[in-house]
Amino acid sequence: MTQIPPNNSKPLQRFQDEVDLTQVLTVLRRYWVPLLLTPLLLAGTTYLLSQRTPPTYEASTSLMSTVPDTGNSAIAASSITATQLPQGAVDKVVHSRSTYQVIEKLLSESSIPTQTQTRIKRDLQRELATQRFNRLKVKARLDQLQRGVYDLTAVAETPQAAQILATAATQALLEWDLRRAQEGVGRAKRNIQQQLENVNKRIASSEAGSVEQQSLISARGQLILNLSQATAFEEGARGSLTLLAEANAPLAPIAPKPRRNAALVFVLSLFIGGMVALLLDAMRRKIRSTAELLPLNLPALGELPRLPGMTRSQLPEIARAGAFYEPSGFLRVNLLSLVPQSPAIVGVTSARPGEGKSTVAATLATSLATVGKRVLVIDLDLHRPTQHEYWQVIGRPWVALPGAEGGKQTTVIQALQEPHFASAVDVGNGIHFLPAGEGGRHAAAVLSSPAFAQQLRTWSQGYDLVLLDTPPVLALADAFIVGKQADGLILVVESGVTSVPEIQRVEQSFQTTGVRLLGVLVNKVKREREYYYNYGVDSVSSR
Questions:
Q1: Is residue 70 part of a domain?
Q2: Is the residue at 109 inside a domain?
Q3: Residue 532, pLDDT score
Q4: Cα–Cα distance measured from residue 330 to residue 525, given in angstroms and rounded to the nearest whole number
């Protein structure tokens, strides 16, 4: 037997990676009803729920962060301005407990309904505890010197409540900033007052008209001057924040927006639905014809039609002159072009049980016999043999296989155990058949033994082609064990049943094991009226 090297083609590209616009449109057209109705239903539900949601209003104020004016000496000498705030300080101050207490006080003094006040205060306390702030937010737009604008935004249930909340937060922030500026001057003023009290005590206890008393009186005058200046500074102190824009009552709510929400839900659900449909189609897509093998970069050997009304024993006749005649001829021609040498050993397998591998093996044997080829069919599906159901075995003669001294009725197991008695049944037309018999438990050991490889080569010498009916590759490893002794394997897939991921797994297994995949045959294809081999026989169901 001439060994042909395994197929070393590049690993197939995942079907999901193929961008096939025709397939995309086909999938979307196939599922257009749920793909359209589901987004419409979700959008309608969103619209109704949004309309029932209480409105939310937003009001905002703007504050500017400035630096002291040092260009005017008169202004600089008569006022104190607080230093610039570090980054993030305003946000921390706004969301502090002291600020919230001021806000709550101002809310209590406002005209906001008591129920709304209670809800806002409860939310503010909860936000303090969770540190997740929604009612009040600060957005800073500053330069490297921390100069710029702070936008303070308040959210409430009514326009008036939003305006008052934003104003209260701004007022609390400005008061804090002013106190920050006054604190330093206040400490200096208190220190001067303490010094002035001490000097007054010393003057009272000193001798009248003495030099010491005169000196203390002079010092007291200077302290009084300093105290008046400190008082002026305290009154003129100002913070680093200046109000730019006051809060106004908003005219329209920021939420909900039923139309916008419904439109977003519609577009998003439509996109997700389409992606899910395409993904599921890629994962579950079934092979229906040889044309769908092209994106997988797999060789196609042909197609066989579905003929449910035919029994297995009728298959050889239909393969010779019926609905299988022309498609089996294409299969025969394609196979002989791949394995032109004689003898040749070819295995027939499938991805899963029930896809028709045994039917294809029997059909191919009959087709080869019609052109004068001598064929030996060996049923190596030792777990679930069915090849004997396709041939008329009873009453047919048994002939010795090449290398055997004499013939008697044997199975594969018996022929390997007693090779000098190995024989096959002559089912006519140049076809010999060696049944599987019983041996499923020992199948792997039998097929992987050196004796099997040796006998297979010996038996092939008397034939043009040996066909091996092997188990499905996704169920058992037997086919790959046999494939190493053969010129290659034919993979049979059932139209509309075998999925793309299953074929990808099988093809990857072929590459891993180094077994040559001769090609793929699509079986049980649903025939159309114009199908080129429509001979009037409706269908067959085969294993």
A1: yes
A2: yes
A3: 44
A4: 15
Instruction: Render 401-438 in DSSP notation, one character per residue.
Output: PTT-SS-----HHHHHHSGGG-EEEEEETTEEEE---S
Per cent of the chain over pLDDT 90 is: 46
Q: Average the pLDDT over 375-381 and give the result.
A: 94
Q: How far apart are CA 143 and CA 329, in angstroms?
A: 82
More confident position, 162 or 68: 162
Greater pLDDT, 83 or 241:
241
Q: Are residues 22 and 170 in the same domain?
A: no
**CATH no. for residue 352?**
3.40.50.300
State whether residue 526 is helix, strand or coil: coil
Identify whether residues 308 and 372 lie together within a single domain: yes
Same structural domain, 387 and 512: yes
The H or E element that residue 346 is part of is strand 344-350
Instruction: Look at the chain and report how many structural domains it folds into.
Output: 3
Mark whether 386 and 522 lie in a shared domain: yes
Is the pLDDT reported for residue 199 higher than 90?
no
Regarding whether 94 and 30 lie in a shared domain, the answer is: no
CA distance 490 to 519: 5
3-state secondary structure of 238: strand
Whether residues 328 and 440 fall in one domain:
yes
- pLDDT band, residue 283 (cuts 50/70/90): low
Q: Averaging pLDDT over each range in 215-229, 270-284, 365-379, 469-483, which range is the top one?
A: 365-379
Q: How far apart are the first and last CA of the chain?
A: 29
Give CA angle at 302 (543, 453), nearest 5°: 65
Q: Is the pLDDT of residue 121 over 90?
A: yes
d(CA 304, CA 401): 31
- Asked whether residue 131 falls in the same domain as residue 271, the answer is no
Task: Determine the Cα–Cα distance for residues 338 and 102; give it in Å rounded to an integer.
Answer: 90
**Is 82 domain-assigned?**
yes
- Classify residue 410 as left (phi > 0), alpha (psi -120 to 50) or beta: beta
Q: What are phi and psi of 335, to 5 degrees?
A: -65, -45
- Does 404 map to a domain? no
Nearest to 248 by CA among 121, 143, 160, 335: 160
Q: How far apart are CA 300 and CA 294, in angstroms?
A: 8
Mean pLDDT value of segment 479-507:
90
Give the pLDDT of residue 227. Answer: 78
Joined together, the tokens standing for residue 25 give 């449109």
Concatenating the DSSP letter of every residue in 53-116 gives SPPBEEEEEEEEE-----S-HHHHHH--BPPPPPTTHHHHHHTSHHHHHHHHHHHHTSSS-HHH
pLDDT band at 82 (very low <50, low <70, confident <90, very high): low
The per-residue pLDDT for 69 is 53
Question: CA–CA separation, 11 vs 7, rounded Å?
Answer: 10
Same domain, 437 and 303: yes
Domain around 24 = 15-53+256-284
CA 152 vs CA 52, 56, 146, 231: distances in Å: 28, 16, 16, 33
CA angle, residues 69, 74, 76, in degrees to nearest 5: 35
pTM of the model: 0.55
